[in-house]
Amino acid sequence: MKSHWITDSLPDEETTVLMRLPNSDYPVWPGFREDNEWNTCDGSTLDGPVQGWMHLEDAAKCLDAHENQI
Fold first, then answer.
1. CA–CA gap between residue 43 and residue 1 (Å, rounded)
2. pTM, full prediction
3. N or C of the chain: less Cβ packing under 10 Å?
4. DSSP characters for the chain?
5. For residue range 35-50, what is the model confidence (pLDDT) as tens digits?
6. Where are the domains of the chain?
């Protein structure tokens, strides 16, 4: 299964998703949106851009598909 980063819409607020962070030491990290701001899973507001996001269930399916290929 190929990963599909969502770039043309935003997740519902307070829904935990996997974020793609191009300018970060950790380029993939869980987080959520609240009051139109992106936050890491510990509640810290992000300074940099979010390049895309993915539902956690979809990310898990990608990992499962990769594991089955090994």
1. 30
2. 0.82
3. C
4. -----B-SS-PPTT--EEEE-TTSSSSEEEEEEETTEEEETTSPBPSS---EEEEHHHHHHHHHHHHHH-
5. 999 999 999 999 889 9
6. 17-69
With cut-offs at 50, 70 and 90, classify the pLDDT of residue 68.
low
State pLDDT tens for residues 12-23: 999 999 999 998
Q: Which residues, other chains included, contact 70 with Cβ-Cβ below 8 Å and sequence gap of 6+? A: none
Pair 50, 38: CB distance under 8 Å: yes
The neighbouring-strand residues paired with 19 are 29, 53
Q: Are the beta carbons of 51 and 7 closer than 8 angstroms?
A: yes
